[in-house]
Amino acid sequence: MGVGAVAHAAEKSAARRSASAGLTKGDYVIIAAVSETVETHRFEVAATWSGDGAGMGRVSTSDGALGVPVAGAVVLGGSGGKANPEELFLAAIASCFVNTWAIFLKKLALGYSEPSLKVEGQLEKDPAGGFRFQRAVIHARVPAALLESRREQVEKTVSLAEKYCIISKAARAAMPVEVRIEAA
């Protein structure tokens, strides 16, 4: 069914409902149907590595806009001195969450245009071998005055960010992700 057919069907349905309610066409406004499309978005990064587990490498976006030197965490036997995969994972959660939160802060007109947060993760031994993240905690920082005067709205924006942040949703599939609101 095309957009025109959907709009026509919606108009006929609205007219039937209005007629049954005793309304005439002049008593209501017909809202055109909006076509929803399923969209798939692809993202790609590349990684290179030199050496063994104590070596180092680089991850970069396919468009070359970002290149990050990487190495394993010293506590896990890596060489350190560069971003490690665990930090990049937490950075992905942080950047997605703060971006999503900023969207809802603006939509709900809270007047907080520079939100900040930190994310900490807890790595533990995995009974199946190696290590795994056991949990992540997002600390959403809010100016004390704003938190005091508009706590309910702040909590709503954080809740919406939690619901819509793509990366934290993916992380929650593997471990608990907690969000805490803190006065800054």
Draw up the topology in text.
Elements: H1 3-20, E1 45-50, E2 56-61, E3 67-71, H2 85-107, E4 116-125, E5 131-142, H3 144-164, H4 166-172, E6 177-183
Parallel strand pairs: 5-6
Antiparallel strand pairs: 1-2, 2-3, 4-5
Helix pairs in contact: 2-3, 2-4
Description of the molecule:
With about 180 residues, the protein is an alpha+beta fold. The protein has four helices and six strands; from the N terminus they run H-E-E-E-H-E-E-H-H-E. The strands form two sheets. The protein has a three-stranded antiparallel beta sheet, with no helix packed on it. Strands 4-5-6 form a three-stranded mixed beta sheet. Helix 2 crosses helix 3 (about 145-165) and helix 2 (about 85-105) crosses helix 4 (about 165-170).
> Cα distance, first to last residue?
52 Å
Going by CATH, the homologous superfamily of the largest domain would be K homology (KH) domain
Count of DSSP H/I helices: 4
Rg is 24 Å
CATH-defined topology of the largest domain: GMP Synthetase, Chain A, domain 3
Strands ordered across the widest β-sheet: 1-2-3
Q: What profile does the largest beta sheet have?
A: 3 strands, antiparallel
Unreliable sequence segments: 1-34
Shape: globular
Care to give the gist of this entry?
The protein has 184 residues and is α+β, with helices and mostly antiparallel strands. It contains 4 helices and 6 strands, in the order H-E-E-E-H-E-E-H-H-E. It folds into 3 domains: 39 residues, no CATH class; 41 residues, no CATH class; 100 residues, GMP Synthetase, Chain A, domain 3 (2-Layer Sandwich), CATH 3.30.300.20.
